[in-house]
Write a structure and sequence with these properties.
Elements (H helix, E strand, L loop, with lengths): L1 H12 L4 E2 L8 H11 L6 E8 L6 H6 L22 H13 L3 E5 L5 H11 L3 E5 L1 H12 L5 H15 L3 E4 L2 H10 L1
Parallel strand pairs: 1-2, 2-3, 3-4, 4-5
Length: about 180
């Protein structure tokens, strides 16, 4: 927790607007919030990875950074959430809100739109979702093979996030979506 606070302060001092610890360690939001506030960074937002599932959807990212072979047999399943468990997400979100999180992040995105919707409807709190590497890769693969129309698929996909309650979407399609929307 001390190291996370040092990292958060370094990011805040460097001008970051949002601190987003992805470690999922209990208590981290409280300690980071206290550390930021004590050092005159009350205006820095904290985005909590409260609902981060142990997922195969991180595969392309892990492969790109050569992490797949180094994760061991548990592949982060000892601290990321079981994909069957919605109740743990609700518990973790509640704890992080009480500790001072400004934004809740649901990750991965599309396979967990139900979790996104439940969290948003339960807490009525700023809720973001992250469309991760495999989601992007699968869609791009289908587009490149001519199975799907690029512009329509991107907008439809991102609209599903919004319909499910996302206040914002972190996506590899951000620049494409901006261009499509600008041309509309």
């Amino acid at each position: 927790l001390k190291v996370l606070c040092k990292q958060a302060l370094a990011y805040a001092q460097s001008g970051c607007d949002i601190i987003a610890p992805s470690d999922m360690m209990d208590g981290r939001i409280k300690y980071i919030r206290e550390s930021l506030d004590k050092n005159a960074f009350q205006d820095k937002l904290i985005m909590s990875y409260a609902a981060k599932y142990a997922s195969e959807y991180y595969g392309p990212f892990r492969k790109a950074i050569s992490a797949s072979s180094k994760l061991g047999p548990d592949r982060k399943k000892t601290y990321q959430m079981d994909f069957n468990n919605v109740n743990e997400a609700l518990k973790e979100v509640s704890m992080d809100i009480k500790e001072g999180a400004d934004i809740i992040l649901i990750k991965p995105g599309m396979p967990y739109l139900d979790v996104l919707s439940i969290v948003k409807n339960t807490f009525k709190y700023p809720t973001f979702s992250y469309q991760v590497s495999a989601e992007y890769s699968m869609i791009m693969n289908a587009i490149e093979k001519g199975y799907m129309n690029k512009n329509e698929t991107i907008i439809e996909t991102l609209s599903c996030f919004k319909r499910s309650g996302a206040d914002a979407i972190l996506t590899y399609f951000a620049l494409d979506a901006a261009e499509i929307i600008q041309r509309s």
